[in-house]
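Journal club side-thread
Mid-discussion, someone asked how the predicted structure for our own chain would compare to the paper's figures. Pasting it here so we can look after the session.
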Amino acid sequence: MSVCFLKSYVAKSKDTDIHTVLQRALDVSTQRIKSMENIYNSINHPIPEAFGDRDVDSNAKQLFSESFMLLYTRLMHKFVSINYLNALTVCSRSDFRNYFSECVNTSVEIHQKATELLLAKGLLSKYPSIIIPDRVDFVHNKGYFGTYLGAILPFIGENRPLNAIEITYIFSIMETKQLLRTLNSGYSQVVKSEKVRNYISKAKQLADKQLESLGSVLVDEDIPLPSITEILVTDSKESSLSDKLIMSHINLVLAYIISEYGIALTSSTRVDLVRMFSGFINELLGLAKNGGDLMIEAGWLEKIPETADRNELIQH
């Protein structure tokens, strides 16, 4: 999947510095596919169909700005580095561990290069900072965890100020969702299927709703919001990617966002935030289910290998 995206990005990038990072990301992804195919062959496992040249049109008019290409490449390597690290920790075979270890290292490398370039170009929102405390303190009041309705009905008890961890996760999720909203805005211009377009529209509406709620938490405490300083989508009506690839990617990204909310939920100690994140996860799970149904209907959802159905084997 990443090779398809990066091929279309590299074909359109003109900025030398951005092109260098995108080309490095494409080279890494291409090598990963070869390594994965070798692993599949080593255990006599069929190679997944996945995606290929049939899903990419490099001649299509550019849909996203080069700034977006770089921002999005950075975001994807943030997510996949976490996935690869998780995979590394559950593998026992040395060849699998070596593969995932290399994937972690190269994804971190690309994320670092993209971050440095974005900072140099002034395209990356800097995270809010807090006043450094002059001493270590402990919690002495059970009201520290707040109330579910503290922000709405302060007379029943106010919530404490956000702590550094909570600010970080809210800001990070907003930054991610802004980019994904931009991605969906672009895709909605070019997809051929009306059903896919309607699904993307629902995803955008949900993103707007959640962004508004997250933003209000920061605004209430005078904390700046992440911002996108330029228009990242062109007026193109030509798709460089197939509807199948676009839908698959949207649902993959939903899984990443759900995971990020899950980490934020377990890292927050204000009960109103825990409830908000939990509600957002449920909303996204519903959206992802609808997307999965659409992909099954279109014949796009490749089946993950399953264990044998013992009940069926016994009956037959």
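Post-session note: The chain has a mean pLDDT of 92.
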